[in-house]
Structure prediction request, 300 residues.
Amino acid sequence: MTDRRSERRAIAGFGMDTITLAGPLEAKLAAMAEAGFSQVMLKANDLVGHPQGWQAAVRAVHASGLRGTGFQVLRDFEGLSGHLHQYKVDIAKTMLEMCAALGCKVLLACSSTSTHASQDLDHLARDLRKLALLAVPHGIRIAYEGLSWGRTVNEFTTAWDVVCRADCPNLGLGLDSFHILAAGTSFDALDEVDPGKVFLVQLSDFMWQETRTFEERMATARTYRVFPGEGVHTAQIVSLVQKLDALGYAGDYSFEVFNDDYVQMPLPMVAERARRSALWLAEDVLRRSMPLPGQLRLRT
Prediction:
């Protein structure tokens, strides 16, 4: 049995998304810290929804002692023209200001679902290059994530193509295990990705083998995710994490778990589930070349 201090060291590279927990921001931060996490993935609503204003939310995050894994999420930014493009640029500038105030070094941008956006990859790349350049003065990196229901970019392979076309040092990939599994993208395609350009990895599982339509993917992603080791894709999560580790990824892992049941549970209970998942990944997956058959499931 490991003590709390060694557990905290083991899960130092793991964090939780605030989206997983119900309640006020301060309570979420306290539950994460009590469970042994040292970092937190924050969302814009954490700030603008704070009853004392977004600056008070920033102060609460700093006071918690938790490091900000990143800030999310800029949606439908790339591929627009004219007044729509300028509107999203203004939104992006505000998101970057909040991200910087939190001390977060990564802003997550999801691939566009807008029917008003161009499907030309060079156009998408130009817009993402502009976003990355806007982020430079703040010292922020942009993690571009391919949503599995994105209009043009719905796999990380296409997202990587766009990132390469943009060719900007602070523009890289955000990988989400849910979207990779839902889209059925081969893990072998990660061999083509520069691990130094993977700026964030978000992990979650879900409770059925496949999602057959974009609508089902969206419903599952927004309400039925579970922590790694709790769903039916455990072996694939193990393979993904080990693949990234073998390729040299040394960045953060964050649990992005949208779950309608979890937001009806007491915060410490949900944070404890996350802690067990992080310990399993840290001790049984990342510290061994191959997990033993009896250890593929999350330990309880």
Summary: Confidence is low (pLDDT under 50) at residues 288-297. The chain has eleven helices and ten strands. The longest strand covers residues 67-74. The two ends are 13 Å apart (CA to CA).
